[in-house]
Amino acid sequence: MNYLMYMKKLLNDLENMDHVYSKDIPNISLYMDQVTTFMDENLGSLKRRDDDKILTKTMINNYSKNHILPPPIKKKYSRDHMIMLIFIYYSKHVLSITDIQKLLSPIKDMLENNPDFSIEEFYDKLLNVQKDEFKLFKQHIEKTIEVAANTFKDSDEENKDILELFNIIYLLTLQATAQKHLTQKLIDRYFKQNTDPKDTKPKK
């Protein structure tokens, strides 16, 4: 079971994945089909299966209905919409629709009501941090693999690989659970449901 080489490939893919900067997003408004095509072509690195869809028409319509995404203008989506959809895509794997709505409410509010706010600049700054985080993440996972291997280094050779691999997956699951817990607690503490468009600021 050569899982170490496979994990190394996965980590390298993550570290070197292409990032979609604001300049890479079309500067013209797009119809729904164009939006879903762009997302499939540019955000496919984290898909589990090749035939998985990044975002569907139904998903996007639901985000608008739930006031997570500003409504399209004459059935077209701007670059600002696209950036919001990218935020939603990465969040939806961890957070509920309600939590995503809470988290993005201040951004949506600034986008709609603050002419000085540039979501493009905000997004690109986050993306630069994201690239560095993937490098740190790779180093952290490599350490997790080392710990898992050392835990069962004296085990019977026949079962050693599967025990190590189980331990790695279990440790990754614990880490993901802890991160999700922290995320939920921060949202519960500092963000709230957007019931009033004027009441979207995080709690202090």
Automatic annotation (TrEMBL):
Organism name: Vallitalea longa
InterPro entries linked to this entry: DUF1836 (IPR014975)
Protein name: DUF1836 domain-containing protein
